[in-house]
Write a structure and sequence with these properties.
By secondary structure, the chain is mainly beta. 13% of the residues lie in helices and 38% in strands. The chain contains 1 helix and 13 strands, in the order αβββββββββββββ. It is globular. The mean pLDDT is 85.
């Protein structure tokens, strides 16, 4: 037992998560979780996966050449990037970072998502101050054959707030971009 209110709140959150885990399998029949192998699932964090219409897996993570825990810090140059991996008959290949048209130096680049036709990619670029996200904006890039054109900031959605997890969709017959 503890008198620390923060620890109590964290413990209560964990209890609620465990309770939810008991009922989730009943609601997710037919869903299977599959490890994509050691080329994708490395000891560092990978997140925000999206399957492109080109058959590639797009995901965000830290420098995949680092084998140990990496401290995210502007002074050491470690920034998250968007990677792609291709699947063959032997499984998923090693993830490769997209070029600087997408992964701009000095920014954390994350959360790729795609238009329905797969020719438009939305993603975020952010800045950290310490461990806090101080800026995050949504960007857009168009497919040019097998590569992506230079990214442009999405107008009309970014502002003095944090914009993350862009999700394109359709609402009442019109294309929309959700900012989750």
């Amino acid at each position: 037992e503890t008198a620390d209110e923060t620890l109590k709140e964290l413990a209560q959150n964990e209890i609620q998560g465990a309770e939810m885990a008991k009922i989730l399998p009943e609601n997710n029949k037919g869903v299977s979780v599959v490890n994509l192998g050691r080329n994708i699932n490395i000891p560092l964090s990978e997140y925000a996966p999206a399957l492109g219409s080109d058959g590639k897996l797009y995901f965000a993570g830290l420098d995949r050449d680092k084998k140990n825990v990496v401290e995210i810090d502007e002074s050491n140059g470690h920034y998250s990037k968007i990677f792609t991996a291709t699947k063959s008959d032997k499984g998923w290949g090693k993830g490769d970072a997209l070029d600087e048209k997408i992964n701009r130096p000095g920014y954390h680049t994350n959360n790729p998502s795609f238009s329905e036709d797969g020719n438009t990619m939305y993603f975020t670029r952010g800045l950290l101050e310490g461990n806090n996200l101080s800026e995050s904006k949504i960007y857009i890039s168009q497919r040019d054959g097998a590569s992506w054109l230079g990214a442009k900031e999405v107008t009309g959605i970014n502002g003095d707030h944090i914009s993350t997890h862009p999700s394109p969709g359709e609402l009442f017959g019109k294309e929309v971009l959700l900012n989750l």
